[in-house]
Amino acid sequence: MCLCKMLLLFLRHKSIPLLTSQQSKLSMRSRCNRQCLLLHRKCCFEQKINKITLKKWRNMPLIVITGLPRSGKSSRAKELEQYFTDNGKEPVHIVSEADCIARSGYGVKESFTDTTKEKQIRASLKSEAMKLLTKTSLVILDGTNYIKGYRYEIFCMSKNARTTQCTLHCAMTVEQRDARRNEIVQSLTTSGSDLDVDTFDALCQRYEEPQDSSRWDRPLFTIYGEETLNLIQINSALYDQAPLPPNLATQNMPLSATNFLFELDKTTQTIIDQIASARKIGLDGPVEIPQAGMRAEVPSSMSVAQLNRHRRQFLNYVKMHTNVSSDISKIPAIFVQFLNTNTNGA
C-alpha cells in the first residue's frame, strides 16, 4: 500500500507540470493570436486613413513649368491641359507668363531686363496662381521660373494650400540652344521679334536649373526637345501622393483682436506686479494669481528685473507664434505656466 500511494503521488506530481506547461502554451498562443489580430486591425485602419487622405486632397494639384524662352513650355502646357481634361480632371487653368507680359504692355525684353518690371510680372503670376488654386481645379504655371528662390515661394504656397505639386523642366541641349539663338537672329531681321539675342544670352547665364535634390523642385520631370512626355507618371505624382503638411512658416496666422498686443502686455505686467507686491509684504511662497486660477511658484530670490526678462521672452514668443492662443482670457494661465517652467530652480 505504501508503494502504491507513493506511486500515485509521484504520478500526480509529474502530471501537474505537464498540464501547467500545456496550459501556458495555449495561453501564450492565444495571446500571440490576439496581438496579431490587433496589429492586423491597426494596419487596416491606417490603410483606410491613408485612402481617405488621398481622396480628400486629390483634386487640387499644381504643375510648375520652367525653362528658357523657346524651349517648348507653352506646347507642353497645352499637352498637359488636353490630357487632364480628357481624363476628367477639369477644370484646368493655365497661368501663362506670356499672357501676363502682354497684359502689362512692357514687352518681353523689358520684362527680363528691368528688375522692377520683372518683379511685377512674377508677383502677378504668383497672385493669379494662388487665386486659381482651389480644391476643384488643376493649375499649370507656364513661365521661365528661372529663379530657384521664386520656385521656393511657389512651393511654400502649395504647402499652405495643402496641395500636391510637381516641376516640369523643359531643358535644351547646347545644340538646341544654339539653334534657338539662330532662330531669334533670323526673326529679328525678318519680323522684328521682341526677344533679342542679348536678352536670351543673359537668361541662359542667369538660369538656375531645377535639381531633384531640392525639395521645392521634387518630383522633377525633365524633357528635351521633341521627347515624349510621361503623362501617366505625372498624373501619379499629382493624384496618388499625399500633399506635404504645412509648417509654421507657410501657415496663415489666425486673426486676433486689434488690441491683442496691448491686452497681452497689460495682462502680463499685472501678473508681474502681483508677484512683486507679494514679495514686498514678505510672502516667500507661491503667489495666488486669481485671473489665472493657479499659483505662480516663483523663487523668492528672483528679482523684478529677472521676472521682466522672462516676461519679454514670453511676449516675443507669443508674437512669433500667434497660434498659441488668440483668446486673451487664456493668456494669464499660459503666462503663469511659462513662469513656473522657466523659473524652476532659479
List keywords for this structure.
346 residues; alpha/beta; two-stranded antiparallel sheet; 7 strands; 58% helix; 10% strand; elongated
How would you characterize this protein structure?
It is a single chain. This protein has 346 residues and is of the alpha/beta class. The protein is 58% helix and 10% strand. It is built from 12 helices and 7 strands. The protein has a 5-stranded parallel sheet, sandwiched between helices. A two-stranded antiparallel sheet has the order 6-7. Strand 6 (287-289) and strand 7 (294-296) form a beta hairpin. Helix 10 packs antiparallel against helix 11 (304-320) and helix 10 crosses helix 12. The longest helix is centred in the N-terminal third of the chain and has 55 residues, at 2-56. It starts with a helix and ends with a helix. Residues 13-21 and 48-59 have low confidence and may be disordered.
Helix content: 55-70%
Instruction: Note the gap between the termini.
Output: 82 Å
Radius of gyration: 34 Å
Q: Which term fits the overall shape? A: elongated
Q: How many helical elements?
A: 12
Poorly predicted ranges = 13-21, 48-59
What about the largest sheet? Answer: 5 strands, parallel
Order of helices and strands: HEHEHHHEHEHHEHHEEHH
Strand order of the largest sheet: 2-3-1-4-5
Structural class of the secondary structure composition?
A: alpha/beta
Number of DSSP strands?
Answer: 7
Tell me the β content. Answer: 5-15%
The average pLDDT is 80
Summed up:
With 346 residues, this protein is α/β, with parallel strands linked by helices. It has helices at residues 2-56, 73-86, 97-104, 108-113, 115-132, 148-160, 174-190, 197-206, 231-239, 260-280, 304-320, 331-342, and strands spanning 62-67, 92-96, 138-142, 165-171, 220-224, 287-289, 294-296.
